[in-house]
Amino acid sequence: MSRHVAIVTDSTAYLPQPAMARHGITSVPLTVVLGDEALEEGTEISARSLALALQKRRSVTTSRPSPEDFVRAYRAAADAGATGIVSLHLSAEFSGTYDAAVLAAKTAPVPVRVVDTGMVAMALGFCALAAAEAAEAGGSVDEAVAAAQKRAAGISAYFYVDTLDYLRRGGRIGAAQALLGSALAVKPLLTLDGGRIEMLEKVRTASKAIARLEELAVERAGSGAVDVAVHHLAAPERADKLAQRLRERIPGLVELHVSEVGAVIGAHTGPGLLAAVVSPR
């Protein structure tokens, strides 16, 4: 569908396909390198395959899209009738994706605003949806960017992981924090802060950590209108149980998305991940 302002994001937003199709959002995939094989996230490697590889301790790394990948996406949007593009991406603290998009924007056939949202997963996805809704209402590029940034400012994301080892290996959390968690045998709760993953709390058992994750999400949601996403990796029962509890406990819940994260984020969190993203409207 042709739009005055097109919205581009990347595969780490983990937006549901129906939502992407409904809003005409384009996603540029990151790459997972499994051994010596480079695979596109979302099309060439599944989260389940990634989880199995991690459990077998196979070498797994990730890489950004190339600038040429973004050039193709921007040209396609322009060919479809867009006169401006908003390109929203995961935190530049995690990936060079933002830098690749900035390089591509210099040669795009229409003006492109590239935004480092400081987010990841549906924290990024909700920003993309906000921008798309603003564009659909006739908003300009600046108005779509403002809508995304306003949504980002209110989002809270909480993560439980079984171990900090995967985040340590990928350089996404400090070695000292990871070693401390292992030495104390604690279950970490993490949050997004300033585009980084930071330790929020240390809890003694997995069951207590997941219960605390629920409480944090409920407290942040309050009683106003709010969207929530629950993510997991190889932990569908945990995710379904958390989602059901949040449905029961959040009075202003508008939309609730439940999904398994893709291979890129999964490579850095490991199996057992459970996350709650809370996005006030």
Overall 3D shape: globular
Between the first and last Cα atoms, what is the distance in angstroms?
25 Å
Percentage of β-strand residues: 25-35%
In sequence order, what are the helices and strands, one letter per element? EHEEEHEHEHEHHEHHEEHEHEHE
- The computed structural class is alpha/beta
Number of helices: 11
Strand order of the largest sheet: 10-9-8-13-11-12
Query: Over the alpha carbons, how many angstroms does the gyration radius reach?
Result: 18 Å
Major sheet: 6 strands, mixed
The tally of strands reads: 13
Rounded mean pLDDT score:
88
Helix percent reads 40-55%
Which stretches of 5+ consecutive residues score pLDDT under 50? Answer: none
Describe the structure.
With 281 residues, the protein is α/β, with parallel strands linked by helices. Helix content is 42%, strand content 28%. The chain has 11 helices and 13 strands. The chain has helices at residues 17-23, 47-55, 67-79, 97-105, 122-136, 141-154, 165-169, 175-184, 206-221, 236-249, 263-269, and strands at 5-10, 26-28, 31-34, 37-40, 60-63, 84-90, 112-119, 156-160, 187-193, 196-203, 226-232, 253-260, 274-280. Strands 10-9-8-13-11-12 form a 6-stranded mixed β-sheet, with helices on both faces. Helix 5 (122-136) packs antiparallel against helix 6 (141-154). The longest helix has 16 residues, at 206-221. The radius of gyration is 18 Å and the shape is globular. The mean pLDDT is 88.
